[in-house]
Design a protein that fits this description.
alpha+beta; Membrane-bound Lytic Murein Transglycosylase D, Chain A; 3 domains; 14-stranded antiparallel β-barrel; two-stranded antiparallel ribbon; rod-shaped
């Protein structure tokens, strides 16, 4: 089992264990709800009907039709359920079928049927035709999922039957870190003799293989908060669920569930434990059977996931090898640069010593010039200098540079290029080779 799964169990399951104790000491006093508050789906009911933001199986069309856009496979599900109540038990039957629209990215259509029978108290039949899609919101750069249902409802109670038509609408927002928010308006009907419109605001958070959902449902003066937890193990083969169940005619209960995703078959079970003990007439027992078309079996999917993980690890290894090679190349480059910098440092130190010698010579010349200034200068005999012979030759001494040699022979250090052009073979890195004999060409004529 993965480390993330172990962490999820250690952090989330104590919450599940604490739920019964919390409800026992702090019972929730919600307004009594009748059979018109009930929706199908063993998974959703095991999560305490907190499903408007999770919205990732076909029964989402009863809770938030926007979730249809999350379904990218053709799928059919059938379910049977029984609800316990202090007034009279209720039975349920449901069927949903969803199919992605061809040649589209996120559009999915669905049809659903839900029947509720509560002995003499009433009955309700609902047929839904739904659609879900998405678009990218420019300023958020995240997909916004939306959807809606056309609803046909037959409501029979007190020996009166009402046929109505209505709609559902919903929207979903998802973040990059596992948080989802859903808003749904359901059971907006005409012709039933009373209003069943329900507003649901839901939030869910998924961490690894665990998910937590919470819904606030409001209908007229009735409002109640529902919450649920789900955790998957064995690569999603099994899913354990728990939540605060939707009560029928008063008593509350802890909903529990198990999901088996043996693709292409999917089984979901829901059961319950009344908060005040098993002697209470409260709870739900439901089972769903589903078939997902054109998907690999669980074994094939497991092998495929293992191969994908192995491929991902191989890619990571190749990336690490490439990074290692890059680092080795960088180290080699740094070593080369280090050698170049050391050579430049040695050259600069040599020049610094040369400048120190020149500074000392200049100080001596300055002292000598001061002494000569104070002494009367003897008159020198006038004589005509002999014409110089060119070219001349100069043996390079330590500290000599092209500029100093040009200054010595031409009286102008800027004429060093003439010396350089005639003696390139004795020049190394801009400096004359020590001990070499340079040919000093004729100076340029004066202008």
């Amino acid at each position: 089992m993965k480390k993330a799964s172990i962490i999820s169990i250690l952090t989330l399951y104590p919450v599940l264990i604490a739920l019964p104790a919390f409800e026992a000491f702090c019972p929730v006093r919600a307004a009594a709800s009748d059979y018109t508050y009930l929706y199908p789906g063993a998974r959703a009911n095991a999560l305490g009907a907190a499903f408007s933001s999770l919205a990732d199986d076909p029964y989402t069309m009863f809770y938030n039709p926007a979730g249809l856009s999350n379904l990218r496979n053709t799928e059919a599900r059938f379910g049977l359920g029984r609800r316990l109540s202090p007034l009279a038990p209720a039975g349920e039957a449901s069927f949903v079928y969803v199919r992605p629209a061809p040649n589209t990215v996120n559009r999915t259509f669905g049809v659903g049927y839900h029947a509720v029978r509560q002995t003499t108290l009433g009955r309700r039949d609902s047929i839904l035709f739904g659609m879900g899609d998405s678009f990218i919101l420019k300023y958020l750069q995240r997909p916004v999922i939306y959807g809606g249902n056309l609803r046909i409802v037959n409501l029979s109670e007190a020996q009166k039957s009402h046929l109505g038509i209505g709609f559902d609408a919903g929207i979903l927002f998802a973040s990059n870190w596992g948080l989802k928010t859903g808003v749904a308006l359901t059971d907006v009907n005409l012709g039933l003799g009373r209003s069943l419109a329900t507003l649901t605001l839901g939030n869910s958070y998924r961490y690894g293989d665990s998910a937590f959902g919470m819904d606030l449902k409001v209908r007229g003066s009735y409002a109640e908060v529902f919450y649920g937890l789900e955790h998957a193990i064995f690569n999603g083969l099994l899913q354990f669920r728990a939540g605060k169940g939707a009560s029928l005619n008063g008593p509350g209960y802890l909903a529990l569930g198990l999901g088996v995703n043996a693709f292409p078959w999917i089984l979901d079970f829901a059961a319950s434990i009344p908060w005040k003990g098993f002697n209470q007439n409260a709870g739900v027992y439901e089972m769903n059977v589903g078939y997902r078309f054109d998907v690999p079996t669980y074994t094939e999917r497991f092998v495929g996931d293992a191969a994908a993980k192995a491929g991902a690890l191989k890619t990571q290894i190749e990336d690490l090898r490439a990074q290692k090679a890059g680092l080795e190349t960088s180290i080699a480059a740094y070593r080369v640069n280090k050698g170049v910098l050391e050579s430049e440092l040695t050259l600069l130190q040599s020049r610094m010593r040369e400048m120190e010698e020149r500074r000392k010579n200049l100080e001596l010349e300055l002292i000598e010039a001061g002494y000569k200034k104070d002494q009367p200068r003897p008159k020198k005999p006038v004589f005509q200098p002999k014409p110089e012979k060119w070219p001349k030759f100069h043996k390079v001494a330590p500290g000599d540079t092209l500029r100093s040699i040009a200054a010595k022979y031409y009286g102008n250090p800027n004429l060093w290029e003439r010396i350089y052009d005639n003696n390139q073979k004795h020049i190394l890195k801009g400096l004359p080779v020590e001990g070499a004999t340079l040919e000093i060409p004729v100076p340029p004529p004066e202008r």
